[in-house]
Amino acid sequence: MPTPPIVSAKGVHKHFGHLHVLKGVDLEVADRELVFVIGPSGSGKSTLLRCLNRLEQPSAGSITVDGIDMLSPATDINHARQRIGMVFQSFNLYPHMTALGNVTLALRKVAGKSRAEADELGRAALERVGLADRATHRPLELSGGQQQRVAIARAIALEPRVMLFDEPTSALDPELVGSVLEVMRSLRESGMTMIVVSHEMGFARAAADRVLFMDHGLVVEEGTPAEIFESPRHERTRAFIGQIRRH
Amino acid sequence: MTRLDRFLDAFFNAKVMDKYLPDILAGTRLTIELAALIVLSGILTGLVLALLRSLGFRPLNWLIIFTVDLFRSLPPLVIIVLIYFGLPSAGLSPSSFVSTWLSLSLVLMAFAEEIFWAGIVSIPRGQWEAARSTGLGFGQALINVILPQALRLTIAPLTNRTIAITKGTALGTVVALHEILGMASSAVSNSYNPSPLMMGAAAYLVLFVPVVVGARWIETRFAWKR
């Protein structure tokens, strides 16, 4: 019997004023699966990700994460969000706190841990991203790659069931991308369910179970990395893959 | 008498200064008490209004914006006069102290609200999103993530505004408040000598220079590397 999906989105629509950004997207992600979402800018891939933890309120559709109906008014959204980690393109670390402070804030305020417990869990999370020695540094004393790893630690410290990555390496200098991908790879190996919006094709090929290609608010096609990157069925997919290859 | 002697006799007349020193000191004490109260109530209410405004509840925000714009536009002197001479017809008779305190608190509240609000909205949306995505509620994100960053940006403009408005305590003279300037100018008319005004000026310096220095200290204290 197949396990029920961790993430299940059905018929998700999102309007921004007159703009119809998502036009009925379905997405199911199984436990321990890594799904890559690619597509041109404005295709709605980031919006889809942000709908999954309700940073954006979908206009229509249903979203279930780990058995929780994310769109129900009865759902405690703050509680539910602990199960969904999110990593942003621009890191969004809190500049007035140390790395450890960034990681432990939600542990203390949301998960209700004592400072000592939170510090211990926070240090363990920083250890996992290879930054145990940077616990007392402020974000602006860290490189972009280190900041993004602290952001990953902040999310995984809450032990989420699924991690959302919104272009996690797009704001990084090329030489810093590797360290972030390395952390994502080890996260993947630990069995984390992940949904990644990114154009890191090399990483997708090596780590993704499935690749979705989105355009104009719809999933145009999906398949294994080999299928999507080597023999896309749709003309639009082919054109897009050709474009990112040239870069 | 040389020119210098004439100048000293007019502006730094020891006999006059000695005579009116107790008055100026009493005025200084009153100004300190009044200023401290204005700073406390003005900044606190301004902060509360800014926090309420961040809830994004439209009708409430219209009310806040209207109030704030009103007290930012009216000259403080007009507000003092309205409260002192106007409220008695509503059955309330605030003293000159209370009238001045209330008026300047309202003005400082209005400016402080705008300064706090500008600080809050200047924090990038990503900070809110990061905090909310980890499960922090609106209030928790505001208190732990947004406000500490916003407050740091507000220190400089808030200090300037606070000093400008607390110096407005001198306006209390129109409702016969015995603060520094009121004491000094009545001493000037009684002694036919402007020396008390110099003492008043000195009192203002003694009062406000520490505030400016203190604000600078707070600013460096809360700075972090950009």
Provide structural commentary.
The complex is a heterodimer of chains A (247) and B (226). With 247 residues, chain A is an alpha/beta fold. Chain A has helices at 45-52, 77-81, 99-109, 115-128, 144-156, 174-189, 201-207, 225-230, 235-246, and strands at 7-16, 19-29, 34-38, 60-65, 68-69, 84-87, 162-166, 193-197, 210-215, 218-223. Chain A contains nine helices and ten strands. In chain A, helix 3 packs parallel to helix 5 and helix 4 (115-128) crosses helix 5 (144-156). Helices cover 37% and strands 24% of the residues of chain A. Chain A has a six-stranded mixed sheet, sandwiched between helices. The longest helix of chain A has 16 residues, at 174-189. With 226 residues, chain B is an all-alpha fold. In chain B, 80% of the residues lie in helices and 0% in strands. Chain B has helices at 3-11, 14-54, 58-73, 76-86, 96-121, 125-133, 138-167, 180-191, 195-221. In chain B, helix 2 (14-54) packs antiparallel against helix 7 (138-167) and helix 2 (14-54) packs parallel to helix 9 (195-221). Chain B is elongated and about 80 Å long. The model of chain B has no long low-confidence stretch (mean pLDDT 91). The interface between A and B is medium-sized, with 29 and 21 residues.
